[in-house]
Amino acid sequence: MKKPHKPVIGLALGGGGARGWAHIGVILALREAGIDPDVVAGTSIGSLVGAAYVAGRLDDLHTWVDSLTWQNVVGLLDVTVSGGLIKGEKLLNFFRGHFKDIDIEKLPKPFGAVATNLASGREVWLRTDSVIEAVRASIALPGLFTPVEHEGVLLVDGGLVNPVPVSLCRAMGADIVIAVDLNSDLVGRRLRMRAGAEASRKAGSAPDTMLGRLQAGIGAWRGGIFSGSGLPSVIDVITSSINIMQVHITRSRLAGEPADVMVTPRLAQMALMDFHRAAPAVEEGRNAAKAALPQLELLLHPA
Length: 303
Fold this sequence. Notes:
Radius of gyration: 19 Å
Strand content: 5-15%
Number of helices: 11
Helix content: 40-55%
Shape: globular
Distance between the termini: 20 Å
Mean pLDDT: 82
Oligomer: single chain
Order of helices and strands: EHEHHHEHEEHEEEHEHHHEH
Largest sheet: 8 strands, mixed
Low-confidence stretches: 190-210, 217-227
């Protein structure tokens, strides 16, 4: 008799800026449960964490993000006015110096990153060549990070078209897809955070978020970062708009391409650029994955 087919497990890691550190907690919880995904697909920050995991460097990434302060993060941001607020070269050089760059094809298991063709709006699956270059293209949030040129076209963040890349996991052969949606509770986030932000403003300080620190650091740019009238800054408008867009696109894509198991960390309290707040994000990711384990076990070991 033939042995029963062992299902191929896929892990689809969604986009969401600093909320993506929750992916680390998700993978740690899966690992503790003895579950090792066979293929990994990532969009935006999901591509970064997914690449580190597939390359066997997740623990190194975890150690690094745990050590981040807002000063560290600001130090990695090379501000520009061409194509986006952040050029991204400092970040790219940092990863090249701390994480070995290899071709995606040479990774121990299948991996893919999602980006968007800026000219055509088409979804692009990056499954060859440099891992770091693929990740840099996938995280190129429009308006924040400058686009990346790849094979003659400009690429931006994959979250514009596929915030949670279930379809890429399926294309890579996954029978069971575990999808991590970082944006499930973002609708109304602005209202929930407004009280805290207003209190900070009245006290004469910026909100205690990476976004607030970045705004304070470049507040001398009087050309449009701050309006001076109490209205949201340009950065705040961009990030809030991205949140709204990704929530609606995610719902639409998942309705047509449902995952087998959904992991939904509750991360509305984190802003898009709060990269210095890794610990609570990792813990929430771990908790959300643990909550989804019973459903996954039923799929892996049906009665």
